[in-house]
């Protein structure tokens, strides 16, 4: 516990001192909200008859939370391994679980702030997102989504050896996934083959779960999305543990 507390405290201090990263972590999803809010202001999705904001806001929020989880842990693990910090940690009685758990605690805190800030802005009259009474169901969806994407970030951070490699790999995963999973455009507008492909992506279920919780969708659907996200978290977690490297030579 002392190792976990020390790593968590150090991670929090490093994160809050990096004001550029701190700013863009929260501003980047809001930028997409503003852009899509301006483009689709007052419009409804023809296929479902619902306002665009009901599709776009939960999707962009889900993508922003997942994106932050992936990049946050991937960059840190790459830097710690490159600077031999992980090798020094390994020489202490600190288990791998403490290292990952410390990053997980920080990812959950960042995700919570992102969600509250994003929903508060989306509910402004200009955007007009109406939050349903089932909104608390978004909490387990976000927690499980952050867990799955954190594990994906551990995998990326274990293989990438430079900041450029982290950015390239993570963006190649997260940006196409955002379009294929309906974060930026409703899935109803996409071809059938693309909707089928999206079912193999964790972001699809994070989008659907957050959207259903915030806009009053089926509780059963939210529970199903939680189950699938939990499955992704277990599988990606198992891969992350097996591929984790304390140094570039091991």
UniProtKB/TrEMBL annotation:
Residues 20-247 form the ABC transmembrane type-2 domain. The chain crosses the membrane at residues 21-40, 60-80, 101-127, 139-159, 166-187, 222-241. It comes from the Bacteria. One of its GO terms (cellular component) is ATP-binding cassette (ABC) transporter complex. One of its GO terms (molecular function) is ABC-type transporter activity. One of its GO terms (biological process) is response to antibiotic. It is a multi-pass membrane protein. Pfam families: ABC2_membrane (PF01061). It is found in: Cell membrane; Membrane. Keywords: Antibiotic resistance, Cell membrane, Membrane, Transmembrane, Transmembrane helix, Transport. This is Transport permease protein. It comes from Streptomyces pacificus.
């Amino acid at each position: 516990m002392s190792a976990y507390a020390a790593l968590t405290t150090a991670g929090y201090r490093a994160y809050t001192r990096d004001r550029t990263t701190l700013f863009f972590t929260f501003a980047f999803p809001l930028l997409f909200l503003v852009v899509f809010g301006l483009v689709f202001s007052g419009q409804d999705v023809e296929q479902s008859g619902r306002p665009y904001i009901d599709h776009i806001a939960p999707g962009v929020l889900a993508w922003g939370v997942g994106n932050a989880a992936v990049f946050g842990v991937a960059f840190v693990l790459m830097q710690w391994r490159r600077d031999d910090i992980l090798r020094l940690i390994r020489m202490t009685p600190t288990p791998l679980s403490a290292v990952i758990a410390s990053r997980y605690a920080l990812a959950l805190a960042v995700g919570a702030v992102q969600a509250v800030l994003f929903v508060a802005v989306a509910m402004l009259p200009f955007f007009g997102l109406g939050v349903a009474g089932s909104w608390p169901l978004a909490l387990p969806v976000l927690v499980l989504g952050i867990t799955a994407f954190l594990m994906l970030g551990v995998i990326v951070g274990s293989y990438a050896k430079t900041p450029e490699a982290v950015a390239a790999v993570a963006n190649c995963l997260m940006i196409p996934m955002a379009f294929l999973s309906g974060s930026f455009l409703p899935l109803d507008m996409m071809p059938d083959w693309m909707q089928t492909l999206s079912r193999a992506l964790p972001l699809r279920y994070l989008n659907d779960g957050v959207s259903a919780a915030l806009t009053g969708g089926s509780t059963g659907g939210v529970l199903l999305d939680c189950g699938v996200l939990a499955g992704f978290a277990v599988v990606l977690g198992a891969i992350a543990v097996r591929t984790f490297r304390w140094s570039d030579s091991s």
